[in-house]
Design a protein that fits this description.
The protein is an alpha/beta fold. The protein is built from 17 helices and 14 strands. The protein folds into 3 domains: about 110 residues, 2-Layer Sandwich (Gyrase A, domain 2), CATH 3.30.1360; about 120 residues, Four Helix Bundle (Hemerythrin (Met), subunit A) (Up-down Bundle); about 170 residues, P-loop containing nucleotide triphosphate hydrolases (Rossmann fold, 3-Layer(aba) Sandwich). Helix 12 links the parallel strand 12 and strand 13. Helix 15 runs antiparallel to helix 16. Bound molecules: guanosine-5'-diphosphate and zinc ion (ZN). Guanosine-5'-diphosphate binds next to helix 9.
């Protein structure tokens, strides 16, 4: 595949003083040579691959020195995109980095679209689709744990598992083909049935296991959707502020996702909390008043975690009881706040209403109980299991949907075997399972999906 040369500013992970202008494509090195002046007049086209060179970026029209730089030259195919790649490391500020990029663009490169470097890595067969998506997750990762999951996926952990499963299916399909083409070989048929049954069970179990990780995986990836509710004045804003202050607030800039509820991310012991509707708490205090009964019900329903705040220094009211009813059956932590004041709340009654929900007492004013609350949140979602770093997690909704569909297909195969469906009919569901799994790694995806996926990337990746 012959693609033009693209360029973009690519800032390394985790912020830093260095910004990189990255080029990728057939002419990357030629273009870099037009703007780079190495010490002793050294040309980049003559240097060995995977070497770094000191020099200056010069505007050839004005002879002006734009930047002092280190330039890495990496020749195809051993690069991220499998194309020639040049990285110009700039130490100056944003302005000079931009000027370097402009020069590179004048010299023949095209500005990369968001995600285009990763897209090329995919198109050139360097990484598969699930790995490409992992790059995107990595960029957005909100906690170290989320990052580890993304890195695992980027390293191809999920891909390997999916490929193994597909290989297993392929073997069975091959046997079935033989069976259909050469019906006279009875022993082949017998073997096919036995093998089919064994393999179908195995594949179903593996897919089920994988889906079981998806809840935690999704939380890590998207954040635990959390809503704080409670009567006015119980301490909701104080709780929110304490979260935001004590924990590193996570800045989010996911392009293209306009949400109608305001969100704030905080990192609570590795669990990313997506605090939903914080504006409601901050401004009008009353989520129902602000967004209406229907909407607030929807917000509540979609929440992964409810923090229900009560006032220790006040008696329980009808409204408190209604809140308990509204969140029935959900994951709830009951917070009894203002323990520094004289107790008026009836604890027996609270326990009765809370049923098996966890109860935590706090005094946000005196900064007490917050640690315990954080512990309760972490324990609720990651009972240590997430620490198992070598586990394969599914966190991407597209993958989860495909795995669920594949699971359904393989269950149909199993049904077919049980009721004695002709093998060439069973074959259809088997092939479908294979296809669906293939979509995860991009083996059978359509152009439209590819473009849609990669357009979500950040620029320069
Ligand atoms: P919200 O209406 O539920 O958001 O409650 P706020 O967080 O705005 O708090 C209402 C009032 O209670 C404020 O004056 C807070 O300073 C105060 N407050 C919050 N937490 C505590 C606490 O633990 N003890 C005491 N004594 N006051 C608190
Ligand atoms: Zn408030």
């Amino acid at each position: 595949m012959e693609l033009d040369t693209i360029a973009a500013i690519s800032t390394p992970m985790g912020e830093g003083a260095i910004a990189i202008v990255r080029l990728s494509g057939e002419d990357a090195i030629i273009i870099a040579d037009k703007v780079f002046k190495g010490v002793g007049g050294k040309k980049l086209k003559d240097v060995p691959s995977h070497t770094i060179h000191y020099g200056h970026i010069i505007d050839s029209k004005t002879e002006e020195v734009i930047e002092e730089v280190m330039v890495s030259v990496m020749r195809a195919p051993k690069t991220f995109t499998r194309e020639n790649v040049v990285e110009i490391n700039c130490h100056g500020g944003l302005v000079s980095v931009n000027r370097v990029l402009q020069l590179v663009l004048y010299s023949g490169a095209r500005l990369a679209e968001p995600g285009e470097f990763t897209k090329r890595a995919f198109l050139n067969g360097r990484i598969d689709l699930s790995q490409a998506e992992a790059v995107m997750d990595l960029i957005r990762a909100k906690t170290d744990r989320a990052m580890n999951v993304a890195i695992g996926q980027m390293e191809g952990r999920l891909s390997r598992l999916i490929k193994t499963l597909r290989q297993e299916i392929l073997e069975v399909v091959a046997h079935v083909e033989v069976n259909i083409d050469y019906p006279e070989y009875d022993d082949v048929e017998e073997m096919t049935h036995k093998m089919l049954k064994e393999k179908a069970y195995y594949i179903r179990d593996e897919l089920k296991k994988l889906l079981q990780t998806s809840h935690q995986g999704k939380i890590l990836r998207e954040g635990l959707s959390t809503v704080i509710i409670g009567r006015p004045n119980v301490g909701k804003s104080s709780l929110l502020n304490s979260f935001v202050q004590e924990n590193k607030a996570i800045v989010t800039d996911i392009p293209g996702t306009t949400r109608d509820v305001i969100e704030e991310y905080v990192n609570v012991r590795g669990v990313p909390l997506r605090l939903v509707d914080t504006a409601g708490i901050r401004e009008t205090e009353d989520i129902v008043e602000r967004i209406g009964v229907e909407r607030s019900r929807k917000v509540l329903k979609e929440a992964d975690l409810i923090l229900l705040v009560l006032n220790y220094a006040d008696e329980l009211t009808k409204e408190d009881e209604q809140l308990f009813e509204a969140v029935e059956g959900m994951d709830v932590i009951v917070i009894i706040n203002k323990t520094d004041l004289e107790q008026k709340i009836n604890m027996e009654k609270v326990k009765e209403l809370a049923k098996n929900h966890r109860i935590v007492t706090t005094s946000l004013l005196e900064d007490k109980g917050v640690g315990e609350l954080e512990e309760a949140i972490a324990a609720m979602y990651f009972q240590g299991s997430i620490e198992a770093q070598d586990m394969t997690y599914v966190s991407n909704s597209r993958h989860i949907a495909l795995i669920s569909q594949a699971l359904q297909a393989i269950e149909e195969v199993m049904n077919g075997i049980e009721v004695g469906t002709p093998i060439d009919i069973i074959q259809i569901d088997l092939t479908r399972t294979w296809d669906l799994l293939g979509e995860i790694i991009g083996d059978s995806v359509q152009d439209g999906l590819i473009n849609q996926l990669f357009s979500q990337f950040c620029l320069g990746k």
